Amino acid sequence: MLESHSTPAGGKLPPGMVLGPDGKPCKVCTGFKAWTKEHSKKAPKSHSKATASAGAASAAAGAIATSAEPSEKSLPRDCPADVERLGRHTWTFLHTTASYFPPSPSLAQKSSMLSLLTSLPTLYPCSSCADELGSYMKSHPPKEAVEGGRSTLERWLCEVHNEVNERLGKEAFNCDNVGQRWRDGWEDGRCD
């Protein structure tokens, strides 16, 4: 994901805030912590007493269930996804789908998988993430990986994910372990 640190008019954006294609702050492209820092100054929306009470209880439950530390802000489970949640769930879906792709797919399965992958740069809600993926796919097209079946698709997707992790300063994943991570479970039995 590319982060924008200034607006088209030259104004500075808060750290972590990303602009969407419309030039406005993009909620799904921005992490919850950065978004709440920018928007905490705004007055909360008014709700009916029942809605506010239910919303507060739900938000509290989500915060408890997702927060590692009480002082750390976390996105309640019942809120729209931020860039981190969207990314985690998308990677889970894509890796799991690749790991259950047939070793020798039919023409229809190949066509469907290729359509899924090539639609992401157009349809993915985070526009900067989608643009980065589109650029990667131009130099590393998924067609050959899809044609090769499960193992080549798993490897290709792992390499895409590692390229994103590298850009974000995260640790790379050992692509030799994709089957254990996304389909079979770890050899030590902790997933059984």
UniProtKB/TrEMBL annotation:
Keyword Zinc: no
UniProt KW Disulfide bond keyword: yes
EC number(s) stated in the UniProt entry for this protein: 1.8.3.2
Pfam families referenced in this protein's UniProt entry, alphabetically: Evr1_Alr
PROSITE patterns in the cross-refs: ERV_ALR
GO MF entry, a single one: flavin adenine dinucleotide binding
Descriptive protein name: Sulfhydryl oxidase
Species in which this protein is naturally found: Leucosporidium creatinivorum
